Amino acid sequence: MIAVNGYFGGNMIQTLEKLNARKNQRVIITLLDEDIQTNHNEKKMKAAGSLAKYANPNLIPMEEGAWERAVSDVKETS
Is the distance from CB of 16 to CB of 4 less than 8 angstroms? Predict the structure, then answer.
Protein backbone atom coordinates (compact mmCIF):
# COMPACT_ATOMS: atom_id res chain seq x y z
CA MET A 1 0.00 0.00 0.00
CA ILE A 2 1.24 3.52 -0.85
CA ALA A 3 0.09 6.73 0.87
CA VAL A 4 0.27 10.11 -0.89
CA ASN A 5 -0.68 13.60 0.20
CA GLY A 6 -3.27 15.59 -1.71
CA TYR A 7 -6.36 17.75 -1.44
CA PHE A 8 -9.93 17.97 -2.71
CA GLY A 9 -10.19 20.92 -5.09
CA GLY A 10 -13.99 21.03 -5.20
CA ASN A 11 -14.50 18.75 -8.19
CA MET A 12 -11.66 16.27 -8.00
CA ILE A 13 -8.89 15.02 -5.73
CA GLN A 14 -5.43 16.35 -6.60
CA THR A 15 -2.28 14.63 -5.37
CA LEU A 16 0.64 16.72 -4.14
CA GLU A 17 3.14 14.02 -5.02
CA LYS A 18 3.86 11.98 -8.13
CA LEU A 19 1.55 9.02 -8.21
CA ASN A 20 2.49 5.91 -10.15
CA ALA A 21 -0.87 4.19 -10.36
CA ARG A 22 -2.28 1.91 -12.99
CA LYS A 23 -5.54 2.61 -14.77
CA ASN A 24 -8.43 0.99 -12.88
CA GLN A 25 -6.24 0.34 -9.83
CA ARG A 26 -8.28 0.37 -6.62
CA VAL A 27 -7.60 3.18 -4.16
CA ILE A 28 -8.68 4.03 -0.63
CA ILE A 29 -9.43 7.71 -0.07
CA THR A 30 -9.34 9.01 3.50
CA LEU A 31 -10.57 12.54 4.19
CA LEU A 32 -8.84 14.34 7.06
CA ASP A 33 -10.48 16.93 9.31
CA GLU A 34 -8.05 19.70 8.37
CA ASP A 35 -7.70 22.19 5.53
CA ILE A 36 -4.57 22.97 3.55
CA GLN A 37 -3.40 26.51 4.20
CA THR A 38 -2.16 27.98 0.93
CA ASN A 39 0.01 31.03 0.67
CA HIS A 40 -0.45 32.55 -2.79
CA ASN A 41 2.77 34.59 -2.50
CA GLU A 42 4.73 31.42 -1.73
CA LYS A 43 3.32 29.78 -4.87
CA LYS A 44 4.33 32.79 -6.98
CA MET A 45 7.86 32.71 -5.60
CA LYS A 46 8.16 29.00 -6.34
CA ALA A 47 6.98 29.58 -9.91
CA ALA A 48 9.40 32.47 -10.37
CA GLY A 49 12.38 30.30 -9.49
CA SER A 50 11.19 27.18 -11.26
CA LEU A 51 13.41 27.75 -14.30
CA ALA A 52 16.54 28.62 -12.31
CA LYS A 53 17.98 25.15 -12.89
CA TYR A 54 18.17 25.97 -16.62
CA ALA A 55 20.03 29.26 -16.12
CA ASN A 56 23.41 29.62 -17.78
CA PRO A 57 25.56 32.01 -15.72
CA ASN A 58 27.82 32.59 -18.75
CA LEU A 59 24.93 34.24 -20.63
CA ILE A 60 23.92 36.70 -17.90
CA PRO A 61 26.30 39.47 -19.10
CA MET A 62 24.86 39.11 -22.62
CA GLU A 63 21.29 39.31 -21.29
CA GLU A 64 21.90 42.57 -19.45
CA GLY A 65 20.79 45.37 -21.76
CA ALA A 66 19.37 42.96 -24.36
CA TRP A 67 15.97 44.67 -24.36
CA GLU A 68 17.49 48.11 -24.87
CA ARG A 69 19.66 46.85 -27.73
CA ALA A 70 16.70 45.14 -29.39
CA VAL A 71 14.56 48.28 -29.18
CA SER A 72 17.31 50.49 -30.57
CA ASP A 73 17.84 48.01 -33.46
CA VAL A 74 14.13 48.27 -34.35
CA LYS A 75 14.24 52.09 -34.27
CA GLU A 76 17.27 52.14 -36.58
CA THR A 77 15.64 49.87 -39.16
CA SER A 78 12.33 51.82 -39.20
Answer: yes
Q: Share the mean pLDDT of the chain.
A: 80
pLDDT at 78: 58
Residue 37 has pLDDT above 80, yes or no: no
**Cα distance between residue 21 and residue 36, in whole Å:** 24
In this structure, are residues 76 and 68 in contact, taking their beta carbons and an 8 Å threshold? no
Residue 17 CB partners (closer than 8 Å, separation 6+)? 4, 5, 6
15: β partners: 6
The partner residues of 61 in beta bridges, in order of sequence, read none
- What predicted TM-score, i.e. pTM, was given to this entire model? 0.40
Rounded to 10 degrees, what is the CA torsion of 12, 17, 20, 22? -10
